[in-house]
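call fold target=NOB1 protein
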Amino acid sequence: ETTEDGASAEEEEDEEESDDEGWITPSNLKQVQQDTGCCDTAPDGIQVGCVTTDFAMQNVLLQMGLHVLAVNGMLIRQARSYILRCHGCFKTTSDMTKVFCPHCGNKTLKKVAVSVSDDGSLHMHFSRNPKVLNPRGLRYPLPAPKGGKHANNPHLVEDQPFPQQRLSRKARQKTNVFDPDYMAGVSPFAENDIYSRAANLQIRDAALGAGRRRLNPNAVTKKFVKRR
């Protein structure tokens, strides 16, 4: 009985000691924040800094070389960079504006987070989410290619020729009666182009605001929309 009581007392003392070591108290809060790198105190020699709790914005600020200050320890430890990786030929490119793979030409580029180690080697961090390479919504019948100066075909390859979508000659004419070099033509009033093919497709001048144009002809359009 004495041995059992002594063993139980020792176990209780060990549990109390282990609990005291893991707790964060107001006395050791600053030390724990310094150990984890989450401290609100600004480094020495820095007079101006950016304060934000948005991790994406902190990543951009760090890549720009600006000083970022944390609020309640909410600060990322290192900046995250991204590259594009083709899951068809497994080639990578750092040009984030690419839509098609520069090596195989397929539209199979995916954004991958990368990190650079101390020795300069590049490590890619892949997502375990199976929805990243989900082909749902990518398989659909393609329409027959159409010609003409106002054709709207799907973008299938990088070097695919596209029409210029230019305005008609009547729409490009500007009638300004207050112009000192104005010469009265058939009519002194401004005429609008409403009968040409470009006007029917609602193609407008970029300076006056681009018109409504479907970039993807396979996009689903809303039907039976209630008009006010």
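return ok
The helical segments are 2-22, 29-36, 55-64, 169-172, 197-200. Residues 214 and 222 are 13 Å apart (CA to CA).
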